[in-house]
Design goal:
44% helix, binds pyridoxal-5'-phosphate, Aspartate Aminotransferase, domain 1, alpha/beta, four-stranded antiparallel β-sheet, 2 domains
Length: 447
């Protein structure tokens, strides 16, 4: 009898790491190192998360082999029946998770989602009004080095210099004075709630489109732990990894989804413009393994446990901010409404910067980001940004946040600024790493 050479899908996918070890021990070892690093250090990077093994499985599947340009059911390639279904499910679940009327799950990243929206409705040279990146905006919102900054005219609104908060009346005045075609809101390091409804009022008064980029807070928005922009903004974008999904981006629309617009003298819809700006505008073939992983994530994100965890993330961040403040560290705006806390480290000792703080903390097993602080002129990266999504996912609570704040404080006080940068006592590093590892070992690498 003829032996058929067909493999079982589960069997074939199950030995992925073994296959890698066999064919490329070098990269396999680096993956093992990264797993150890993620498992045994205190992960306080606010722009990261840990996806589930189910999301990873979708990423590491044969869906990655499929090429198919264009929107669902209008692909340029053959054999697209399965991936059409995958993409439809992903879009459907994205709409459900965010309460949206339209979802485009094709963008390869949050940056690209922004570029697609901007390219869809603006003409070269049109004006964008946005928060500059040194105040918490994102480079894809029009910074000079990015494509958006090169192709469009960009004006900025600024945080209030005293409170470091968004001041909607000042933003309104700026919008009415400069008359942008698009206003962008949403930030990479803004620790307070954003009033998207106020932004929409301003956009309407100024005759502008409103783009809300919720990359940092999208999981809070899904859970109802932060106001949703979906029905206020014309367009909402987000990266999909900070909330706990795979790398990638999505574009959402709410009640404006079927608006008719006139672009270049022709009547069309936002949906048609976004589809064309995605392909062939800015992207080629979609990544179906990522789109499937987005679908898996959006299913997880409507779960009660996920929703409750988002509130816990905020509670943990509040305790972290409070404890850091009690240790005498300078917490920007005095606290937080979301998942992140900003600390100005320059007042702690002469010569200390966010860059040095980040390195010294990492030496001791505590991983954070350095950031520029608004209006801080003494140095670049005057601060650090700490966030609670990962530690919360691992099951840490308020008690551990107090411990984490104590570690940050102790490390920053222990380090000594030198001509070459900084130094810390070796024994102190070893002891602190041990404390961090013990803490991490109590909380498993969450699935
Ligand atoms: C992280 C972030 C992005 C970028 O997303 P990528 O997927 O990394 O390109 C865009 N906008 C904001 C506000 C972000 O914080």
């Amino acid at each position: 009898m003829e032996v058929k050479n067909l493999l079982d899908c589960h069997c074939w996918h199950s030995g992925l790491l073994d296959a890698l070890r066999h064919s490329d021990a070098e990269i396999c070892r680096l993956i093992e190192d990264e797993f150890d690093r993620q498992q045994n250090t205190l992960q306080l990077v606010a722009a990261e998360n840990q996806c589930s093994r189910a999301v990873l499985a979708a990423l590491g599947s044969v869906l990655q082999n499929k090429t198919a340009e264009g929107p669902v059911a209008r692909r340029l390639h053959g054999g697209c029946g399965v991936v059409d279904e995958v993409e439809q499910i992903a879009a459907q679940r994205a709409k459900q998770a965010f309460g949206a009327r339209y979802a485009n799950v094709q963008p390869h990243s949050g940056t690209q989602a922004n570029q697609i929206v901007i390219a869809a409705v603006l003409q070269k040279g049109d004006k964008i009004l946005s928060l500059p990146d040194e105040q918490g905006g994102h480079f894809s919102h029009g910074s000079a080095e990015s494509l958006t900054g090169k192709l469009f005219t960009v004006e900025n609104y600024f945080l209030d210099p005293e409170s470091l908060l968004l001041d909607y009346e000042t933003i309104r005045k700026k919008a009415l004075q400069c008359r942008p075609k698009m206003i962008i809101c949403g930030a990479s390091f803004y620790p307070r709630a954003i009033d998207f409804e106020a932004f929409r009022r301003i956009a309407d008064e100024a005759g502008a489109f409103l783009l809300a980029d919720i990359s940092h807070i999208s999981s809070l928005v899904i859970a109802g732990a932060h106001q949703s922009p979906v029905d206020f903004a014309h367009f909402t974008t987000t990266s999909t990894y900070k909330c706990g999904g795979p790398r990638g981006g999505i574009i959402l629309m709410g009640k404006d989804f079927d608006n008719e617009v006139v672009v270049g003298g022709k009547k069309t819809t936002f949906e048609k413009l976004l589809d064309a700006a995605t392909f062939p505008g800015l992207q080629g073939t979609p990544y179906f393994n990522h789109i499937a992983a987005k679908a898996v994530f959006f299913k997880e994100a409507v779960d009660t446990e996920f929703r409750q965890r988002q509130f816990k993330i905020i509670d943990n961040a509040a305790v972290l901010a409070d404890s850091l403040g009690k240790y005498g560290l300078s917490v920007i705006t005095g606290g937080t409404d979301n998942h992140l806390v900003l600390v100005d480290v320059t007042g702690l000792k002469a010569g200390l910067t966010g860059d040095i703080a980040q390195k010294a903390l990492e030496d001791c097993g505590v991983v954070v980001d350095k950031i520029d602080l608004p209006y801080q002129k003494t140095c670049r990266t005057a601060g650090i940004r700490v966030g609670t999504p990962i530690v919360t996912k691992r099951g840490m609570g308020e008690e551990e946040m107090v411990v984490a704040a104590g570690l940050v404080d102790k490390i920053l006080r222990q380090l000594v600024i030198t001509d070459a940068g900084y130094k810390i006592d070796r024994n102190f590093i070893a002891d602190t790493r041990q404390i961090v590892e013990t803490l991490c070992s109590k909380f498993g690498f969450a699935d």
